[in-house]
Design goal:
The protein is an all-alpha fold. It contains six helices and no strands. The chain is globular, with a radius of gyration of 14 Å. It holds the Pfam family BID.
């Protein structure tokens, strides 16, 4: 039922946003600034930038103690990093967004299970 799915998705989105707010305080400016520099580097391929994003997410997941599933933490951290990068350098929004979508697509099976 599409209406039920929309409500489930809203609930999941609200939960992820709440987790994101908690993680937002833990993400160091250095990580964001490093990623901004990678996005600004025109010599890096899309795959290389996605790999750098993945490394940053993994680093943050290890640094933030959490009892939640690793995949959920990775999903939320990727979204928070996207927000922080776009806030730091708004001109990168489109590039950061597409990279994040590519990164999150790697978590597709987890997202499907979550819904």
């Amino acid at each position: 039922d599409p209406e039920v799915n929309e409500e489930v998705i809203r609930i999941i989105a609200a939960q992820l946003a709440e987790i994101g707010d908690q993680f937002d305080k833990e993400i160091k400016a250095r990580v964001v600034n490093d990623l901004v520099q990678h996005f600004l580097n025109e010599n890096l391929s899309a795959e290389e930038i996605t790999r750098r994003m993945s490394e940053a997410v993994e680093e943050i997941v290890r640094a933030i103690p959490s009892d939640m599933e690793k995949e959920k933490a990775m999903l939320v951290i990727a979204m928070v990093l996207t927000k922080k990068i776009a806030n730091t350098m708004p001109s990168l929004l489109q590039h950061v967004f597409s990279t994040t979508v590519n990164y999150i697509s790697q978590l597709h099976n987890y997202i499907v299970r979550m819904v």
